[in-house]
Amino acid sequence: MSFLLGYDIGSSSIKAALLDASGGRCLATATGSDDELRIRVPKPGFAEQDPEMWWEEVVKATRRLQQQHPFDAAAVKGIGIAYQMHGLVCVDENLAVLRPSIIWCDSRAVQTGDEAAKQLGSDYTLPHLLNSPGNFTASKLRWVQQHEPEVYAKIRHIMLPGDFIAMRLTGVPATTLSGLSEGIFWDFAAGKVSDKLLQLYGIDASLLSPIVPTFGEQGRVTKAAAELLGLKDGTPVTYRAGDQPNNAFSLNVLQPGEAATTAGTSGVVYAVGSEPAYDAESRVNTFIHVNNTVEETRNGVLMCLNGTGILNSWLRQVSGGISYDKMNSLAEQAPPGAEGLRVFPFGNGAERILANRLPGASVQGLDFGIHSQGHLLRAGQEGIVFALAYGMDIMREMGLSFHRVRAGKANMFLSPLFREAFANTTGAEIELYNTDGAQGAARGAGVGAGVFSSFKEAFRGMDLLEAIAPDARVQSAYQEAYADWKIKLQQILSNR
């Protein structure tokens, strides 16, 4: 029997998955730690993690995986990596980390990116970058250059979180075209790294890591890494992608008109297109998708809501640590629309769908004579769904459509109430599958290693678990509540 190994490098946890390469079945999964990973917040709006912590969690997860399902390390044919997007890792000439990673939900570089957009001009920014420089990796690097010049002077390579883990596995700094696009380093019109952006920011192109293919050999596991992980040295790393392109891949979302969603710490809807589409306000973002080729353009249009599972986790804390099942049970006792109670889940950094504004989380319409704990818990889940629907409306304005959306049956999609609210608010049927980011990374590794001869073959062993269609009996209640939520959101934004 041969195996494929996948890692999902998240900001909340590091997960590993082991797949049977012949049948495509997931044999075991494991996380590095049972507790959520720590995010440092040295100042309001900042968010950092230690890259070495990610590596330690990869080691722990791999060891746990071997305990759950012992396997022959020599039979691992490929390793795939999915990772939290938009982070910045800086290493020196010895490949040592110079500072904590500035991760995806950090807002410190918003002003940097906004100023760059003005200087570059709209006639360049959107047609060439398809995004404002915004709060992405290039702008975070510029922030380091401006505020930590002593650190910047020592940088030899900058990389994304997944690039760092691949480097710890192989000893080789590298990145992908998709990764360069998510960092807003890529000029889509010119088909190369954006000289104009680098020149504006004063960034030497030599700091960018060499490009390797998304699918294909990207390096081999070193002897030192193999000893730590319990793997065989020389095992190839054959796939890497940001968590959202990878989530779409893990759900076999590869062609124009297909869409995927996920609702973990953040919430995302990701749709595939064949044209270089962009939003004029850069509230949603376009990146190179994993299966893009010279012959067939494939871009992923991504909308991201920062405050998703993190809001539900916060509600759990203030509810005395009750189980999520109990929370769902209480929430289901309140009717759709929560009798006018509205939650706005914008308390986890600047929100792209709000043009990088940070209004903060809030609750509106609370009536002590009407609303119970169940109302608040329902309104929390509905608020997340309404914010996702708001982002999907922006994507519709770009010409995308949503008749069916695929998701893994995990995180917020474990909640029947959340699934019902999503289908009836957005009007899209939801298909739930038995997959996750780590399994997707393992399937990608199989494609990159040549174990699977096609994408179709890579998805053997992935099953449709459930389909949830809009329900006419409750749809109008959700859509009326969503309309009211949008009115109140505009009032919040106009007062900021």
Keywords, separated by commas or semicolons:
496 residues, alpha+beta, Nucleotidyltransferase, domain 5, 2 domains, 6-stranded mixed beta sheet, 4-stranded antiparallel beta sheet, 21 strands
Describe the structure.
- By secondary structure, this protein is α+β, with helices and mostly antiparallel strands.
- It folds into 2 domains: 3-251, Nucleotidyltransferase, domain 5, CATH 3.30.420; 305-432 and 466-494, Nucleotidyltransferase, domain 5 (2-Layer Sandwich), CATH 3.30.420.
- Helices cover 37% and strands 20% of the residues.
- The chain has 17 helices and 21 strands.
- The chain has helices at residues 51-68, 110-120, 122-129, 137-147, 149-152, 161-170, 177-182, 195-201, 223-229, 243-250, 309-318, 324-331, 373-397, 416-426, 437-448, 455-458, 472-494; strands at 3-9, 14-20, 26-31, 48-49, 76-83, 89-91, 101-102, 157-159, 186-187, 192-193, 215-220, 236-242, 259-263, 267-273, 285-288, 299-305, 342-344, 362-364, 404-408, 429-433, 464-468.
- Strands 3-2-1-5-12-11 form a 6-stranded mixed sheet, with helices on both faces.
- Helix 2 crosses helix 4 (137-147).
- The chain is globular and about 65 Å long.
- The chain starts with a strand and ends with a helix.
